[in-house]
Amino acid sequence: MTDKPHLDEEALAELRDVMEDEFEVLIQTYVADSRDRIRGLQEALRADDSDAFAKTAHSFKGSCINIGAPRLGDLCLRAEIAGKESRLDDASGLLDDIAREFEQVIAGLDGLMVG
Amino acid sequence: MPIQTRRYDDGQTLVIRIEGRFDFSTHQAFRDAYEHGDPHIRNYIVDLSDTTYLDSSALGMLLLLRDYAGGDSAGIVIENCNNDVRRILSISNFEQLFNIR
Amino acid sequence: MDDSVAEHSRPLRILIADDSDSDRLILKTLLKRLGHEVLDVANGLDAVSVFQREAPDLVLLDALMPVMDGMEAARQIKLLAGERLVPLIFLTSLSEAGALARCLEAGGDDFLGKPYNRIIIEAKIKAFNRMRLMHRTLSDQRDLIRERNRQLTEEQEIAKRVFDNVAHSGCLDASNIRYHASPLSIFNGDVLFASPRPAGGMLIFMGDFTGHGLPAAIGAMPVAEIFYGMANKGFNGQDVLREINQKLKRILPTGMFCCGAMIEADFKLNQLQIWNGGLPDGWLIRTTGELLALPSRHLPLGILAPDQFNADFERVGAAPGDRVLMMTDGFLESADSAGNVFGEQGVTGTLDRLDDGDHPFDAMMSAVHRFTGNFEDGDDLTLCCLEMMDEAGLATLPDRAAPSALAGPAEWRCSYEIRERTLGEFSPLPLLLHICMEVPGLRRKSGEIYTLLAELYNNALEHGVLELPSEWKHSPEGFGRYYAERNRRLANVEGHYIRFTLHHSLKPDGGRLRVICEDSGQGFDFHNHPSVAPGNSPTMSGRYAGRGLLLLKRLAETIRFHEQGNHVEIVYDWQFARTAENRDD
């Protein structure tokens, strides 16, 4: 799973093609959305709410796949499964991985914008 | 096919044979049987030997054939009717319009 | 076809519900690029309310959403859509089979996985639009059929009411008539009319048009008009039949016709005249128990040209209490559950078993009822029974609406003469009656006027011109001979004539009609006639044998004979009707 790339260049190229001028808005939306999701995951963890954790991870996974961030999507999937199986002990480590990977993605996307 | 046609060797007589029920459902097939546009046909024989039933719309179809074949001068023979069929033809007095044998 | 192409490429209104802002943005942009109108919301509750307000054509729904999830929103949206097919596609990265199945159970029609692929999205939207349009076409057609059917039923109901007004203006409800005709029998092609004749007696017509539904019903209206119009004016059964045949021959397409029977009952002469063209055997059931079949002897109506049409009636004597029974084919074709038909055997069997007190109508109805086991099939049949009556026991024609005595012609005079072969071909009675009926004061007396004219005319023709001895009619053998001879002699009337002179004038309290009837015959010795000159004369000559003359004397103010008895003059007076309140009728 970890062998997936941070960013799927091909998917992003297609998105740029579809979104045209709004590509930048999309990226900003995704980033803002993702920050909300990560906050949501942290809150669920604090509240020991594995159901909320799984659902948020699921939604986050969907938007990552769509935007072309497959490795982050994978991490979200693992988080979702952990939530579903009520293994919130494993979840905090995963959440750290997610936060780290998200920073990577942001960096990559920024590079894309500049380019 | 419930309706079959054949021609006499002389080429002037058309035999139309109706199998089973002679009613509205045979309307188109009966018309097709004689409306083929062969100018040599002078006489028509409607063979009812295998006709089990005949209703008033069949009587109407016979009138249409009579019209097509020249009205009062039409040469049409209706033959081999069973008793039920014969009864319906005679209640309507169709022997006045057709040669029934 | 062009319409449907346009319809297939028309932009759709699509609702997206997804709580992920970025996913929603991608999808919205994709769909807009494809040319569709997009509405987007972030939760299920908003999706339901936007759906309700904007009625989108297609809904794309995320499964997991806050506030209300996709499953619940799907259920509510499907409920709101009702019979309309609104394709509902779940947007999901769900992969677990159970979760996918729950989406379908909630009303979802398909899934769209992430990441979105624009080619797949476009293909799915097209496919679902096709399905949506097909569904709409089908339900539109179903609604159309439903609506047409409702309209048709309503129109039939109206047509039936109009037809009832025309058809049942007669005397089907007279005490000596029993009949069964289903309420919508007109749409089976069956008709039944009855009318009193101005001179007394009745005319009944039963008909059965080929086919069913509207085509079968369409001929009924002109037949009813002809029947009632002519019967009222005093035309006899032959004339009415000829007119019906001629009309139907003209208006019906070849292959369509009307099996029918006409019965003319004369309660004065105690005779029935019957014409049957294509209906099953009718039956005369005498009070003595004797049965007489009245078979079809003619082609149905609407087939033969007027010059080929044979309107010869069969004439039979029938005493008061004798009954005549007529039926349509539907009666014989009444079937039991096994498909066996009642048939002629059913009819003759029932008639053979008639007991003294049985009314043949009731016996026949209950027999067919017993035979079929239920009476649903009985709705396709018409049965009618007429009973011969004593002349005196029959109510006269009902008075028509009280006319204004001042309107219409009051002072007039006319003369009408028929000669030569027209004597054998044409009855002047309807025409003469028609002229008299223009006088409102006479209109209420149409029966009496007709009787006067008919007696004068028949005597002038049969005894004056044709010199037929009326005593022949007193024996059954003579009866036939009389009419055979009548027909023979009618062919040979050169130089003969019958002339009517009518003269009407007003009097202070009403009016006076003077009728003079002259003929070219030998006349008779009216000076010694028992009815004219009281005295016991043995010379009961051919003319005015008994009842005819008595009838004239009873109805008219005066009756006078002139010349050698072939010139008769009667005077008929009428009074203004009193006001409606104190009329004693």
UniProtKB/TrEMBL annotation, chain A:
One of its GO terms (biological process) is phosphorelay signal transduction system. It holds the Pfam family Hpt. Gene3D superfamilies: HPT domain. The modification Phosphohistidine is found at residue 58. Keywords: Kinase, Phosphoprotein, Transferase, Two-component regulatory system. GO terms for molecular function: protein kinase activity. It comes from the Bacteria. CDD domains: HPT (cd00088). Residues 19-112 form the HPt domain. The keyword Phosphoprotein applies. This is Histidine kinase. It comes from Marinobacter adhaerens.
TrEMBL record, chain B:
SUPFAM superfamilies: SpoIIaa-like. Residues 14-101 form the STAS domain. It holds the Pfam family STAS. InterPro entries: STAS_dom (IPR002645), STAS_dom_sf (IPR036513). One of its GO terms (molecular function) is anti-sigma factor antagonist activity. It comes from the Bacteria. PANTHER family: ANTI-SIGMA FACTOR ANTAGONIST TM_1081-RELATED-RELATED, STAS DOMAIN-CONTAINING PROTEIN. This is Anti-sigma-factor antagonist. The lineage of its organism: Bacteria, Pseudomonadati, Pseudomonadota, Gammaproteobacteria, Pseudomonadales.
From TrEMBL, chain C:
One of its GO terms (molecular function) is phosphatase activity. Pfam families: HATPase_c_2, Response_reg, SpoIIE. The keyword Iron does not apply. Keywords: Hydrolase, Phosphoprotein. Coiled coil: none annotated. The modification 4-aspartylphosphate is found at residue 62. Residues 13-129 form the Response regulatory domain. GO terms for biological process: phosphorelay signal transduction system. This is Response regulator receiver protein.
